[in-house]
Amino acid sequence: MKYLRLILFMGIMLSIGITNSNAQIFPKIIKKDRNQTQIETQERKNIELRGFDQESYLRTLSSITDSIIFKNNVNLGKARSIVSEDQDYMIWAPTNRLAKVSEQVLIDSIWVTAYEYYATWDSKKVDIYNFDINNFQDTVKVRLYDPFFGYDWKMPLEKTPVTSRFGYRWRRWHYGTDLDLITGNPVYAAFDGIVRVRSYDRYGYGYFVVVRHKNGLETLYGHLSKILVDVGQEVKAGDLLGKGGSTGRSTGSHLHYELRYRGLAFDPELVYDFDESKILSQEYLITPETFSHLAKARQQIYHRVKRGENLSSIARRYGVSVGTITRLNGISTRSILRVGQNLRIR
């Protein structure tokens, strides 16, 4: 009987422990207010999470030039599309919008477009656009200046006597117009724009500056003795860029002046009358004919080896590297040249 009472007591105690243990397993249920649940559900429906697809966005952009273009009077209080698609009338308007470019330069201007910001801003190279003239069949009207909207033009020098013109010379192409000056003479920005390149080219331009303009063109100023602007600096037509000189590959003090559209140089005398120090028109039409010289420049050129010539002398004659000649002809720098041998230069 004593043992029976002990077993009964132990059974009661064990059952109480199990009950308490099982009760701790189940979570406590709290009833929510129905109104609060409806509000949370509505807020959740309004939430839309989307990632930014940069490549898809860039594919949707189209640009006539590399500038931001607006049409007629602009209400800057309204959100406008980045690029106008009207190719007949190109007008720029400022907006004081801040953008950040790859060199961590802050630019207070909307005309550094989203496309330029992501794809075509480089402060190291002159031609960064990969513009294929073989596929260019359009006619683009570039409005060079427009006083109504506050942007003007200026000759790059106070006086602009031409010493060498655009074209083929000394067995190579000269992609600008040389303007005579005295070392130290001021060199001015031709149009409103922003400094994209400030650099030094020992075997070519010397100290030079490239300015991207709001009208879609770029200008290059070579052989400077001193540069007075920085990359990312916004300039107005007539602002001082530097001082003229004879640095780099130069036989005397002068300004090497280039006009470029999407990286490709064309004859500045299509836009300027340098003898009269004036611009020819408020607008300039860019057509495939504007770049017809490039087809000639890119033709294959061959040289017949003469007695006493070597790879170095031939390379210097045509203004190319020895490596270019060896690559085009499948030879090495140690190859022996034969008199009468034809070498491809370009």
From TrEMBL:
InterPro entries: Cell_wall_metabolism_enzyme, Dup_hybrid_motif, LysM, LysM_dom_sf, M23ase_b-sheet_dom. GO terms for molecular function: metalloendopeptidase activity. Gene3D superfamilies: Glucose Permease (Domain IIA) (2.70.70.10), LysM domain (3.10.350.10). CDD domains: LysM (cd00118), M23_peptidase (cd12797). Residues 301-345 form the LysM domain. SUPFAM superfamilies: Duplicated hybrid motif, LysM domain. The lineage of its organism: Bacteria, Pseudomonadati, Bacteroidota, Cytophagia, Cytophagales. It comes from the Bacteria. Pfam families: LysM (PF01476), Peptidase_M23 (PF01551). This is LysM peptidoglycan-binding domain-containing protein.
